[in-house]
Each structure stands twice: as C-alpha cells, then as structure tokens.
Design brief:
Length: 127
C-alpha cells in the first residue's frame, strides 16, 4: 500500500524558513514524480513544486520561485520542500503527492493525475 507521511509544518515569523518532509513507502520511489501543493481556506489548491525522480528535473512556479526548493533523498524515500523567506500569504495546508510516471518534465503532470496524497501539514506564517 502506498503511503505518504508529511511533517515539518508549524508556526514561523515572516522571513523565516521551514523544511517540509514527505516520507514515502509502498512503491519504488525512483519511478515516481512527486509534487508539493498547498491550499488556503477559500482558495483552490495550487502546485508549488514538483520533481521527476527518474531524471532529477524540477519545476517551481513564479509564485514561489527563488524561495522554495524541492529535493529528494532516494535512499530514504523522502522528498523535501525547503521554504525560505516565508510570507504571510504562504500560510496554507501543504500536501505532497506522488504518481508513477516516468517523465522528463514534472510540470506536465496535472494535479488530478496524482494518485497518492499525504494528509497535509499546516504552515502558518505570522507578520
């Protein structure tokens, strides 16, 4: 059974940093694309990063470019999201998701194509 367990969320002041972790089990990690998404109350869920583990290619949208970095530790089957220079508008529940799909560019994988999702971790940025 595929399972994703997220951790690392919490309360941080504006300008601070957090590193989120997503530990995966039940599948061959190298064959998957992994994405990070966030959802604030009253807003649609949006992607904030993704990585193709096969090729090591990543994508970060303009909304968080230069502040968020995605990385993986394949030996630990874990994906990380390093968040720096956090802003109050970054406050949301952050989710990791995975899909078995070997692609060179993870941005082509749509949100509704991710089959496996974590439970989410709350990130709150105070001003």
């Amino acid at each position: 059974e595929v399972q994703l367990v997220e951790s690392g969320g919490g309360l941080v002041q504006a300008g601070g940093s957090l590193r989120l972790s997503c530990a995966a089990s039940g599948f061959t990690f190298d064959d998957y694309v992994v994405g990070w998404f966030r959802q604030a109350p009253g807003k649609e869920r949006e992607g904030v990063s993704c990585i193709s583990n096969t090729y090591g290619t990543t994508y970060v949208p303009d909304s968080v470019k230069g502040r968020f970095t995605i990385s993986t530790d394949n030996a630990k089957s874990t994906v990380y999201l390093q968040m720096d220079s956090l802003k109050p508008e970054d406050t949301a529940v952050y989710y990791c998701a995975a899909q078995r799909w070997v692609v060179s560019g993870c941005a082509m994988v749509l949100m509704n194509e991710y089959h496996y999702w974590g439970q989410g971790t709350q990130v709150t940025v105070s001003s």
